[in-house]
Specification:
293 residues; mainly alpha; DNA polymerase, domain 1
């Protein structure tokens, strides 16, 4: 505790790290304190967003406000002599304020947890700090609304500028006419060809459907023709069987004819031998005289 009582911080000149050494001061709150400088007294710290009465009471023993007037005069002289630097500081302060607003809820939660674990802070002090944060929230909400309005205005202006630029280009040189692009023309030609192919395929399907309908009408006739073909096939098979039977009979007759021919040959041979034998025994036969008329 002796080190804490020896700690003295001037909020007008201390850096962010020194401010974070104070009890209950986080990174976001230290940034907002730096952005809200200068402070003529410790009571001016109440204007810092997120710094309530409880936190001010805790850090008051460690505050040293000796250089407030000198820093105020220096800042006033700087603002009077360098308006450009004033605008830069204002922009930096606005940026820090925006970042502080985004981290406001997280910082409030961290501060409540720190207050809950601190030995010198009770449940009642935590409630008062929460009420102080709630009292400071409307200003933060207004700042968030202003930031959203600025963002919406910027987006609207960008959209309007883009629309205006496209309108000017379309009105001056017709560069937005994509129908004249070669790739688009090729795609259109290909699409027309595909459409013609589709029409031809559709006509072919229609003709095939008509043929199928005609074939369905001929189904009965085809059935009768098939029956006739079956009967003719049976008749042909019967005729083939008869032909085979006749062929067998012809073969048998041929064999008998050959047998008879061989027997006739043997008989002729016998007659010829007999004739020679008789001629040798009795002489040649005399021919009888024919009576005269």
């Amino acid at each position: 505790m002796s080190d804490e009582h020896e700690l003295h911080v001037d909020p007008n000149t201390a850096d962010q790290g020194s401010l974070m050494q104070l009890p209950g001061i986080g990174r976001g709150l230290a940034r907002r304190i730096v952005a809200a400088r200068p402070f003529e007294s410790a009571e001016d710290l109440r204007n810092v967003v997120g710094l309530g009465e409880e936190t001010l009471a805790r850090i008051r023993p460690y505050l040293q406000m000796g250089d407030a007037e000198s820093e105020s005069s220096e800042i006033g002289g700087t603002r009077g002599s360098h308006p450009g630097e004033l605008g830069e500081e204002t922009g930096q302060a606005l940026a820090l304020g925006m970042e502080g607003i985004r981290n406001d809820m997280g910082q409030a939660t961290d501060r409540i947890k720190e207050a809950a674990v601190d030995a010198g802070v009770g449940i009642r002090d935590v409630g008062r700090r929460a009420s102080d944060r709630a009292a400071d929230l409307p200003e933060a909400v207004r700042r968030v609304d202003d930031l959203w309005q600025m963002l919406g205005t910027g987006v609207t202006s960008i959209v309007l500028s883009v629309i205006l630029t496209l309108t000017i280009l379309a009105g001056i040189n017709r560069t937005l006419n994509f129908g004249q692009h070669p790739a688009v023309r090729r795609m259109q030609t290909e699409l027309a060809r595909l459409q013609s192919d589709l029409a031809a395929a559709s006509s072919q399907l229609d003709s095939l459907g008509q043929r199928l309908q005609a074939l369905e009408g001929l189904t009965g006739r085809m059935t009768s023709v098939e029956g006739q073909l079956d009967s003719m096939q049976a008749q042909v098979e019967g005729s083939q069987a008869q032909i085979e039977t006749m062929q067998k009979a012809v073969d048998e007759l041929s064999q008998e004819t050959e047998s008879l021919a061989s027997r006739v040959d043997r008989f002729d041979t016998f007659l010829d031998g007999l004739n020679r034998l008789l001629s040798g025994l009795f002489g040649p036969a005399q021919p009888e005289a024919l009576p005269s008329p």
